[in-house]
Amino acid sequence: MADSNRQAGRKNSIPAQALVCLLAIATPCGSAFGAAPSAGFFPASYIGEFDSNLLWEFLLGGIALVSFLVAIGIWVLTALRGARSAQSRRCAFISSALNTLNQGVMITNAQKRVVFCNDRFLEMYGLSRAEISSAMTGRELLELRRARGLLNLTVEEFSKLARRPEGVVTELPDGRSVLSKIFRLPNGGTIGTHEDCTEQRQLSRKLASTTKFLESVLDSVPVCVAAKNIEDGRYIFANRAFERFSRFSRDHIVGKRADEIFSPETARSIEAADQAALTAPEGYQRSEYVVERGDDKRVLSSNRVVARNENNKPEFLIALFDDVTDRRSLSRELENTKKFLELVVDNIPVSLIVERVSDGRYLLANRSAETILNRRREDATGLTAADIFNPREAKLIIARDEAAIKKRGLLTEEHPISTKDGLRLFLTRRMTVLDETGEPQYLIKTHEDVTDRRQTESRMAHMAYHDGLTDLPNRAAFLQALAQMIEACAGTDEEFAVLCVDLDGLKEINDVFGHATGDKLLIEVAGRIQACARGGVVARLSGDEFGLIIDGKQPEAGKALAEKLAQTLSDEFVIDGKSVRTGVTTGISVFPHNGSDAASLLANSGAALFRAKQKSRGSISVFEPEMDQQIRDRRVLHQDLSMAIRNGELSLYYQPQAAAGPTIGTSKVIGFEALARWIHPVRGFVSPGDFIPLAEESGLIVEMGVWILREACREAASWPVPMQIAVNLSPAQFMHGDVVSLVHSILLETGLAPDRLELEITEGVLIEDFDRGLALLRRLKALGVRISMDDFGSGYSSLSYLQAFPFDKIKIDRTFVMNLGRNPQSAAIVRAVIDLGHGLEMSIVAEGVETQEQLGFLADEGCDAVQGYLLGKPQPIGHYAALVGRSAANGVETERKLASA
């Protein structure tokens, strides 16, 4: 600034110096001209009289003038050089200052020519100074950028948009964004600024995305969220839940106060809650208040938080609230439910105890638990097992509790516990309850008295493998023992024989003396056979057939035992004062010569028995290969049976089932069981005991079963009296084909109501494939038909099947009914089955009822229904025409038509 002042001073002194010089020159001249009058005037050509002083004055004045002019020139050049230097320094300063800017700068003059571009501008667009000439216009520079892909707008669009206050953003190929603005200068030129806003735009986008995300989150929150300015109390935000609750749109809520939206009473509640939050020292307030929404009142649970600015002054109030009207109602319901559950738990028949893991103390016990605690439950609370039980039992209980806690799952076991009724067997289930950290917190224990059940199951298990009359092992147990014997002797030189012993004359004894005498004879025979076998395996295979296993040298040992049996059983039996005689016929097969598996050995001994019967009663026969003829005969019978099914030679007989009454007269018939009968054109009447097993072995039972089911349903649908009809289904029918679709189609075809059809199955249906059989039974029951278990107690696992499937009816096998009134064990077993069935809400039918004594016993024990010769033999339906609502004549005519068909 001092330099510029000095330069300005020099500029001002130039006229003064010139004036001084001019005065210096003019002074001698003036004096010369002034002296002329005194000296006289002489013309210029007059030399002779010329004054030399005047000449020197002129010469010196000229020199002075030239010097002055030279000084003027030198001064002017110096001033110009100084001005140029100052201008250069000024330009360098401005250029340096602009080049240090973070923004790009481009300046044009009034002629639109580019006069300046800073380094940042060139760097931003990848240009060099050599590319920008002094004659280049701003438009040409824009065209250059556009040609290089550095401008995604036209020149006109860019110039127009850049002159707006907000400028224009252009996207560069490398992903950068540049904000450009153009300003007009007073001299008519322009200055353009170019700022890299890439990061700013990214942050802006992120901020917008975050804001949108937060708004989306808040809109997705099921709790109502609202925010308002504390200064004026106006809402600045409301989420979707608030909209749904208030039934106002967000646009209607934002910008308004509560009194502009809600009713006065509701607005006062909201303002009171707001004021409580503002005055709360913690800066938040939890409260409940009632608001009006339309015609109803709702209870809101509210959390209000005061948001403060950077100066820690309250600025916003954020409210989070939820409609708890239904929740409070539910809470009351839960309280009522809790009381109800406590009442239920207190009265369930299973003992329930809750124990704290940390110290083993009992926290809860229901009334049923008092039996095993031997005290009132209130007195047991706070005690441990060691305080309640004797040391031996306490030690066992504590050890099992610790095992359950360690397992952290369900632990089930049975163990005896001393009670006031003595030592009882309890089924105990222990379940560990974990806390939120996964550590054991409580132990829940249930105790169920299973003493009576286990005793019943023990009897049932015995029934499953033993004959109900003689208490000998049954066929299933015999086959199991035979398989074990084969396994023990396999790979050795050991031999053993399988004997099939048939009791001669049993049918005649039953006919002459009655079934009661026949049953007693069978019991006596069983005892003598066991005595002869000397501890060997003895079983009752069927009504009059026994099986034995004897080791030793074969077949000699087998023959010797058979002869001994024949001798022993030839002695008379005295039964009820009557002398009864019988004999035995025996068939023998030898392991390993006549078979290597239980079924083959038993079948071959049966074939030998068949040969022995053909020879003569009381004979003994050992299996020989030529006995295969019997198998061929069975094949012939199989072919005849197949033709009989196709030719309609089979017929159905019907045996009545009646409600159990004290007498026959009081036992009302409620239904019939359909039974297949075969009258062979040559052989005559073929026993079901012969052709039914053959049909099951060969698979013909499936085809036969379809015919039986259709014919039985068709016949029952024609009865004027809608009685039940029971039909047996073979396990083979479940294994082959869709038995459910078959039953459904036959019901539709015949028009029989599903609830009138009762399907009887044996446990063989479930033995083959339990899951599939169970699924089919459930589907059958879904059709509306009734399902009953036939021959209950004669199989393997009847009890487990009762647990797996809710049968409608249980049919007690006739072998358990035959000995009623004579054998206390049989009576106990039948009584147990009736109690078990009724406990499972199943009705009970007893088969094989043949005496009034049996009927009376069953009626007294509460048996639901009975079936047997006492009430009626299997007969064509015409014999029972009156029972089904037909006249006897119509019944006979119907049978005649069926026979002719």
The CATH topology of the largest domain is given as TIM Barrel
The backbone outline, from C-alpha atoms, is elongated
Largest sheet: 8 strands, mixed, barrel
Q: How many helices does DSSP assign? A: 32
User: Which runs of at least 5 residues are low in confidence (pLDDT < 50)?
Assistant: 1-48, 891-901
Tell me about this structure.
This protein is α+β, with helices and mostly antiparallel strands. The chain folds into five domains: 93-196, Beta-Lactamase (2-Layer Sandwich); 203-329, 2-Layer Sandwich (Beta-Lactamase); 348-455, PAS domain (Beta-Lactamase), CATH 3.30.450.20; 466-625, 2-Layer Sandwich (Alpha-Beta Plaits), CATH 3.30.70.270; 635-899, Alpha-Beta Barrel (TIM Barrel), CATH 3.20.20.450. 48% of the residues lie in helices and 23% in strands. The strands form six sheets. It has an eight-stranded mixed barrel, surrounded by four helices. Helix 20 (598-615) links the parallel strand 21 (583-591) and strand 22. The protein is elongated, with a radius of gyration of 60 Å. Mean pLDDT is 82; it is low at 1-48 and 891-901.
List the helices and strands and how they pair.
Layout: H1 2-39, H2 52-99, E1 104-108, E2 114-117, H3 119-125, H4 138-147, H5 155-162, E3 168-171, E4 177-184, E5 190-196, H6 198-220, E6 224-229, E7 235-238, H7 240-246, H8 250-253, H9 264-279, E8 284-293, E9 296-308, E10 314-323, H10 325-347, E11 351-356, E12 362-365, H11 370-373, H12 377-380, H13 385-388, H14 391-407, E13 410-419, E14 422-434, E15 440-449, H15 451-465, H16 475-489, E16 496-504, H17 506-513, H18 515-533, E17 537-540, E18 545-551, H19 556-570, E19 573-575, E20 578-580, E21 583-591, H20 598-615, E22 620-622, H21 628-647, E23 650-659, E24 669-680, E25 684-686, H22 688-698, H23 700-717, E26 724-728, H24 731-735, H25 739-750, E27 757-761, H26 764-768, H27 770-782, E28 786-792, H28 798-804, E29 809-812, H29 814-817, H30 824-839, E30 843-846, H31 852-860, E31 865-866, H32 888-900
